[in-house]
Structures are given as C-alpha cells and as structure tokens.
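Researcher: Sit down with what I've pasted below and flag anything odd:
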Amino acid sequence: MNKSKKSKRCPGSRAALRPAPIKKGMTVDEVVDGALFSFNAGTFRKACELFTKQIAKKNVRIGVSLSGALVPAGIGRSCLIPLIRAGLVDWIVSTGANLYHDLHHVLGYEFCEGHACADDEELREKGVIRIYDIFLNYDALLDTDNYVREVLRKNRQNLPDPCSSADIHALLGREIIRANPGLKDESLLAVAYEAGVPVHTSSPADSSIGMNMAALQLEDEPIHLDTHRDINEVTGYVYDIKKRKGKSAVLLLGGGSPKNFVLQTEPHIQEVLGLPEHGHDFFIQFTDARPDTGGLSGATPSEAVSWGKIDPAALSRTIVSYGDCSLMLPFFTSYILNRVKPRSHSELFKKRDKLLDQLKKDYKTLGAYRKD
C-alpha cells in the first residue's frame, strides 16, 4: 500500500526550495521567481521583490548612486533611461566620468566591443582608449571636451551663481535636447533633464567635466560651483519625503563616493543639522566589493545603521547582492518593468529651492542651529 510522503522542512525555515524547470519562452521575471533561490541568486531575487513590492510605491522617494564605468558598458541606455522614464528614479548621484562619457553619443561616437588582452601601447599609437574590453576613439575625448567648454561658455551667465553640479548636468541635458532632439533618447543626461530628475556628482573635480570647468577658469570665464549646495540639495530630497511621512529608498550600483554621498544625507539630517530622523527605509546594493577589507564599497547595511544612515527598524528591508552591476542590472530592470506600473515623475529638479528653504528653516527653528 503506497502512502504519500509528508514534506519535512527544517525548523524555522520559511519555504521549501523547489525551483521550477526553465521552459522555452519564459520571461526574465518568471525565471527569477521560479529558479533563483539560494546564494547570490537568492539575494538577487529578494532585491527584485523588495523593489517591486515595497519600493516602487507613490510615497517612496528613490535615490540611485552610479559608480564604475557603467555608462560606457551600456547601462545608461539599457537600464537607467527606462527606469527614469517609468518614474522609478527620483534623484541620482554619479561619478563625473559616467556623465562625461554619456556625451560621446551626442557627437556621433560609439563605444565598441574590444578585448581586455589588447596591446595598450599599440592602442595608444592608434588613438584608441580602452576601458577593460570596451574601445573608444581618442578623438571622442577631444571633441567632447570642446563640446563641454562651448556649452558652458555660451550659457554660464544663465547658471545660478554659485550653482550645484545638478545645474551643470541639467544644462548639458537641455542643450542636447535643443541641438540634437533626435538623439535625446541616447543620453542619460537629456532624459533625466526632461523628467526633472536632478543628477549630482559627489566629486565634481574628479572628472573630465570638472577639468573642462578648470580650463574655463584659466580663460577668466569661471563657473562658481558650490559643492556644499549639492550636499544640502540631496539632503533636502530625503528630508522632505520623510517629513511628509513618506519613505526613502536607495539603489546603490557599485560603491565608492556616490554611495556615500547618497547615504550621508541621513547623518547630515541627524548628526549635523540636529533634526529628528532615523535613517533610510530601504537599501539595495549591487556590488562586487567584499566587506572584510573595511572599504566603503563593501560596507553592509548593518554597518550603515551604526552611522545613522539606515533606520535600525529597516534592516529587514535591506539587500546586498554580490556581483557585477553590468550583468545584474539588465535583468533587474527587466524584472521591474514587467512587474511595476510607471509612476508619475516627482520632478525634484524644479523643487530644489523650495526644499532647501524648508531644510534651512527647520534647521534654524527645530535643529542644532546656534547663533553666537
């Protein structure tokens, strides 16, 4: 006599790991939900679920950090632009290099598939730039430098004095749309400007855009960039949504300075300005950095709790998935777009002055401000 066997699960476990057979014609989200259960596959699925089920909501403000050479790798066009268009990115902090490389397409230059074992001395002689296995014509740098200086020269009087890095990037995005409307879909800066998404850089001097601004100073046509304004602007985005009983989410692509600039908004609110807050509410990071070296890129959400960057009550809403962003983000983006309805744009770029005024007022009336 045959008796059906009872499933014997481990005590304390949530669910059995029973991956479904992968079949022809399955979508990315079906594969993720049906086959990714353990190790980094499991954390990747949980990141997808966390974003779709809890982050992509009306009352959640989403900040994205962008490091590494992700724009040359195509992540700007393949992933970030679709996410911005779907209203799933509210503000961005990037390395300046990613934003500089975004401009090459507007001038007709393409990143090309190369190989990592190339003879770099020979590439130099041929005028080819290499980013691991990506090749780029050296002339792209020269032409992009000229383009940046020309745009800034013509428009410097229209910029706030001083301005934040978001003003510089919005100006470049606007000029792309004005001069090359057929190419606006190719540019992260143009799409962000059109959607009202402010794009900041945490280290404006550490990029070719910054070097070209330095050249303008030598021409006696300086643009006064106020990096402290950047700090207060991004802090204002977070403070505003939390003050209105909403939530703040961070999507960290890689680590480094952009990661810290996004996360330090909470210590700025709590520690420096002395305003009551508890930390970001959601945290997703895709990184290949190890935590045991002590570097920021590998620092875990629980470590961030000790700094006040993450709300201690939110640790169950934090995910770190280890791997290469250039591999993980296309699948993540596909999953999100298949499962989430587009949101309306928050258009924070236009609201910056209002949010700064609110932050300043509360700092002086409710915070640690003391006038000697």
In short: The first strand starts at residue 60 and ends at 66. Strands lie at 60-66, 91-94, 112-113, 128-131, 134-137, 199-201, 247-253, 282-287, 318-322.
